[in-house]
Amino acid sequence: MRITRQSSIVTALVASSALVLTACGGDGDLPDAPAPGATATDDGDAADGDQLSGALDGAGATFPNPVFQDWAFEYSGSVQPGVSINYQGIGSGGGIEQFLLQTVDFGSSERYLRDEDLDEAAEARGCEAIQFPVLFGAVTIAFGDEQLADLVLDAEAIAGIFQRDITNYNDPAIAELNPDMDLPDMEIIPVHRSDGSGTTSVFTTYLDHTAENWELGAGTEVQWPADTIGGQGNEGVTQGIQQNAGGVGYVNQAYALVEDLPTARVINDDGNAVSATLEATTEALEVLDIPDNFQFDILDVAGEGFPIAGANWIFVWECGYDENTGAMLRDYWTWATQSDEARDLAEELGYAPLGEGLRARVAESIDRINSQG
Questions:
Q1: Where in the sequence is the signal peptide annotated (predicted)?
Q2: CB 320 within 8 A of CB 368
């Protein structure tokens, strides 16, 4: 039943690259205390039996849009019916920009804030910006043609495809990786993000680190070859893949899952060809050393882990919110990162939620929201 509802969600996502997520009302039942929305705190959060009321505005990555939709629906329906979560999926670059301009209550990105971003933020606001991860997910190589399902690719082949060094699916470099597959004589049409994108950052950081033949660099935007197709957001890339014969692009796993796009198996550091599944994404995180400042990339994935994976970060402030907004932010992100309900919703869409140890560290960061008044 959940997947059926998700299909309608992603159909709406594809129709618009700037999605506004407004949570729907519900019956107002609260979880058993203590829980977000029903726990008395010293910093103004909802007291036992009380309700928060208002709206939170956020903007940024399209990567988490499917699960952010579900989270907003569930939170407003069963935790805090008086709170709406309004999120615009404008891309990670836009999320960072709007956060630093202080036009939103929170920003979202698959690219963490660099030291220079944090310095700019502190100067503009007069207090520290806070960033913490909330989700992990695979960046899949997805196709529009079912006969390409489970095509094996390595980093060098992927680099060659998106640089237009490899232009046909029966190219010898691809044939060597797929000796038992009858490859079609079909032109490859690469589809990439046209906006400033954290998904692009994850994808190009992986190629820049892993593929010796990659020449386009890494970042939220790179200079793609002229004969490729750009799409706005993960939604636009998904649409470009589906509408062009021979289309191939990089999208978050949730979009490939719900749109039922065939995907490639990608060779990791141990030489294993791995499909993008929740289990393979979780495996990629097993040996990840996450620093205290939460500035990290996921690289050199081995074992049975899928090698192209990234995180989604949330950006908030230590000061400058009114008391009610600060309370709503603490309550919502505590629920999203700590509750079993939010965790289950994320896993159903193929996202890997925070592990137990990381949840505790993220909770400490959430407690800092508006702590400086």
A1: 1-23
A2: no
d(CA 331, CA 197): 28
Check for a shared fold between 2-137+310-367 and 138-287+296-308: yes
CATH of domain 138-287+296-308: 3.40.190.10
> Beta 152-153 vs 106-109: how paired, if at all?
unpaired
- Domain limits, the chain: 2-137+310-367, 138-287+296-308
CB 277 within 8 A of CB 306: yes
Q: What is the pLDDT of residues 195-250, one digit of tens each?
A: 989 999 999 999 999 999 999 999 999 999 999 999 999 999 999 999 999 999 99
Q: Are 18 and 70 in contact (CB under 8 A)?
A: no
Give the count of alpha carbons within 13 A of 111, CB side only. 27
- Give SS3 for 360: helix
Query: Quick one: which of 41, 42, 57 has its CA closest to 315?
Result: 57
pTM value?
0.83
- DSSP output for 113-151: PPHHHHHHHHHHHSS-EEEEEEEEEEEEEEES-GGGTT-
CATH class for the domain made up of 2-137+310-367: alpha beta
Check residue 309 and report its DSSP letter: E
Contact 73, 24 (CB under 8 A): yes
